[in-house]
Specification:
single chain, 168 residues, 7-stranded parallel β-sheet, 5 helices
Length: 168
């Protein structure tokens, strides 16, 4: 199973966008407190476009609470990572994969990262920006995992207007 973990997210719009990505990809979302917003925040709901009713998510009191309840392979996105996100093998569908993203202002604490440097990664980019928006980073990495898993059971055709919409 693919899991997205947000460590102390601060911006409701980012989390709302990530919620939408998780619903679109059958990905479980884990939110680690403190949150910089209330889950019923209007900005977050607007960003999630009311898909929250289809979202599989869990909220945790802190990092230790999360770790005690979730076993699998942890991958950490950090601008200090030395390996590209594409350099990892995510193809084993039997493993629980946890993609961990830090808070917008400071990222994942060094105390957490230093215990698993082999699983710290970054998205390659120029030296003109410090980091991508977290919701964009989540989408990039989730879809890399899905690509390596042949997109699991995700639809490959548009379900609402029909797969032959362009031909009509």
């Amino acid at each position: 199973m693919i899991n997205v973990v947000l460590y102390e997210p601060e911006i409701p719009q980012n989390t709302g966008n990530i919620m939408r990505t998780c619903v679109a990809t059958n990905t479980h979302l884990h939110l680690i407190k403190p949150l910089g917003f209330k889950l019923d925040d209007a900005h977050m709901k607007r960003s999630a476009v009311n898909y929250i009713e289809n979202l599989n998510y869990t909220v945790y009191e802190n990092w230790e609470d999360f770790k005690s309840k979730n076993k699998g392979i942890y991958y950490y996105l950090t601008r200090y990572g030395k390996k590209a996100h594409t350099s990892f093998d995510y193809s084993d569908k039997s493993s629980n994969i946890y993609l961990i993203f830090g808070k917008e202002s400071t990222g994942i604490p060094k105390e957490i990262l230093k215990d698993d440097l082999d699983h710290c990664m970054r998205i390659p980019m120029t030296d003109k920006v410090r980091a991508l928006n977290v919701s964009n980073a989540v989408a990039i990495i989730v879809y890399e995992v899905l690509r390596q898993q042949d997109f699991n059971d995700l639809l490959r055709t548009e379900p609402f207007k029909g797969e032959d919409y362009l031909e009509r």
